[in-house]
Amino acid sequence: MTKSRLLVVLIASLSFCSPASAKMYKWVDDQGVTHYGETIPPEYANKDRAELNKAGRVIKKEDVLTPEERRASEQAAAKKRAEEEAALERKRRDKALVNTYSNEKEIDLARNRNLQQVEARINSINSQFKMADSNLAGLKKEADSYNAAGKKVPASLQEDLDESQARLAKLQQDLEKAKAEKAALDARYDADKARYKELTGK
């Protein structure tokens, strides 16, 4: 009896003994021997397998990926999702852009309004920074007078010095953040204006 006929007989006999809904699988063990059955042994769960019909023909092939292949597949899928989401977001932004503005001048006006708010915040932080810096200079001068006299700087004065230095550091961070926001805002409106030209041809 040929191998193919033996396979058909084996499948038929297993099908006869099994419920109609039972599935038949084919897999190869570590020694290269092909096996058939309704269930795949746990030790071969991570091996390639094929699902067969009653005639012994492959109707579904399941290739089990290696950890490296699985990671690569997941990364590729994640990249594809990110690209699709980016395309949808770009489409949404394009639609909002042409619906929000009638011409380039309106984009410039919106830019100026938003920049004025950020610039006002920058000016306010600069004013606070100058005051805090002046206050710190006065506290340092007072502390220096104690040191020059060979006296210990009072705890309350040292506490004021520490608080003043911390406030200056915080204001510096706020200033850098506001300047970065201004630059990003300017760049965004530049990009919006260029994109608006592409979309409208104006």
Topology:
Blueprint (H helix, E strand, L loop, with lengths): L2 H15 L6 E5 L5 E4 L11 E4 L5 E5 L4 H34 L3 H45 L6 H46 L2
Antiparallel strand pairs: 1-2, 1-3, 3-4
Helix pairs in contact: 3-4
Describe this structure in words.
A four-stranded antiparallel beta sheet has the order 2-1-3-4. The protein folds into two domains: 3-64, no CATH class; 102-200. Strand 3 and strand 4 (58-62) form a beta hairpin. It is elongated, with a radius of gyration of 37 Å. It has four helices and four strands; from the N terminus they run αββββααα. Helix 3 runs antiparallel to helix 4. The longest helix has 46 residues, at 155-200. The chain is α+β, with helices and mostly antiparallel strands.
What is the residue-averaged pLDDT?
84
Helix content: 55-70%
Shape: elongated
**Unreliable segments of 5+ consecutive residues:** 2-21
Total number of beta strands: 4
Strand content: 5-15%
Largest sheet features: 4 strands, antiparallel
| Strand order in the sheet with the most strands | 2-1-3-4
Estimated radius of gyration: 37 Å
What count of structural domains? 2
Order of helices and strands: HEEEEHHH
Q: Report the total helices.
A: 4
Specify the structural class. alpha+beta
